[in-house]
Design a protein that fits this description.
The protein has two helices and ten strands. The chain is mainly beta. The chain has one domain. The strands form two sheets. A five-stranded antiparallel beta sheet has the order 1-10-9-8-2, with helices on one face. A five-stranded antiparallel beta sheet has the order 3-4-5-6-7, with helices on one face.
Length: 104
């Protein structure tokens, strides 16, 4: 299933927001993304890159996000990140962004 890229129309409760990690809390972002256990994870001072056979997700310390899959490429800016281990997804978002990357 391909990643989703939709305008932010999130109707979540405030309790659900507790799962979101602000991009500004970079050490928490790194720790959370490491739990995603991507086969090809690279970390630099300014970004994290998860690489799979035909897909990748890059998250920048400044909030830039780039996602690639065989049929699309996405570039945007995010304010938070959220992992869902049960669904095998990473979602990034902000006031006008919600992008969900699903493990291929």
């Amino acid at each position: 299933m391909a990643p989703e890229f939709t305008p932010a129309d999130d109707q979540r409760s405030e309790d659900a927001d507790a799962d979101r990690i602000p991009i500004e809390e970079w050490d928490r972002v790194v720790a959370a993304v490491e739990q995603f256990d991507a086969p090809g994870m690279r970390e630099t001072v300014d970004e994290l890159c998860l690489e799979f056979d035909r897909a990748s997700l890059t998250i920048g310390r400044d909030g830039t996000v780039e996602g690639t899959m065989p049929l699309h490429t996405t570039a945007a800016t995010a304010e938070w990140i959220e992992l869902d281990p049960e669904a095998d997804t990473i979602t990034v978002g902000g006031p006008e962004l919600r992008y969900t990357f699903r493990r291929p």
